[in-house]
Design a protein that fits this description.
The chain has 330 residues and is of the alpha/beta class. The chain has 13 helices and twelve strands. Helix 4 crosses helix 5 and helix 5 packs across helix 7. The protein binds iron/sulfur cluster and magnesium ion. It is a peripheral membrane protein.
Amino acid sequence: MEKILDIKDLHVSFKTYGGEVQAVRGVNLELHKGETLAIVGESGCGKSVTANSIMKLIPSPPGKITQGSIHFKDQNLTEMSSKEIRKIRGVDISMIFQDPMTALNPTLTVGDQLTEGLKQHKKISSQDANEQAIEMLNLVGIPNPKERMKQHPHQFSGGMRQRIVIAMALICEPELLIADEPTTALDVTIQAQILQLFNRIQEQTGVSIILITHDLGVVAKIADRIAVMYAGKVIEVGTRREIFYNPQHPYTRGLLNSVPRLDQRGDQLIPINGTPPDLFSPPKGCPFTARCPKAMEVCENVYPVHTKLSDTQEVDCWLQDERAKKYMAT
Ligand code: SF4
Ligand code: MG
């Protein structure tokens, strides 16, 4: 499968009065054409910072990409000027955020907002832009799109607004869509509809999707592959099947245990005790040591080995080391 995004050794930090926060500490990720990669983890793990780095949306200062590269096809995004990035943003790569209202202009009609980007980037006539906008509203499931084009955002429900935001993100036919917690603000039923919509859009357009979420229920519905982040690092990556049925990192297991399961009666949530480490001075060993039920002496002092378990699954944990396996067996 064609690789469309390649993130290598990405480091991002933020200067604050208290010191420098190392929010992302050497992230490697790939994305292929037509696939959905979910990035999961607790808040503050660096998942949004990673996503925002792709589109140079890190406020600088205080934020800075200090190391690494992000290639979108054959272009290195980290080396581009803001002007060059603006040509890509919304056209080749689009982003959707949690709160649809921040993406919509309350004073403009939905039609004007949808056609604005098209006219600006694709240089097409108003009539063609209108027709494409109506088609796009249709695709995202807005009834009576022709009439709805003339309305303002406040005349739509929360779920409908998020559909409009998705339509706006897709109207220039981007190859990559980055969605940061796109359903978090919506109620469960609407959430399910929006997730179905993502699946349908991907089938129809072949767009690649990066989905940032803390919600494993969402991930189970739409991700092809999953990257689990912890303390600024990807600690495990694999296909949906591998992560759900054969998770190898104790943190991934902990996350899965903390998800309520509908098929278990009287189920108990098992939250992971403790909190992630302070990223002002990240630990030199495994960042999960303090919370890990399997932690060994080596974990605290040396960052774990990176192990490839299959063509698709990789994990950073000392339990994969032969010596640890022997030690555990005795
Ligand atoms: Fe736990 Fe050690 Fe593996 Fe870290 S490296 S997850 S502390 S066993
Ligand atoms: Mg976030």
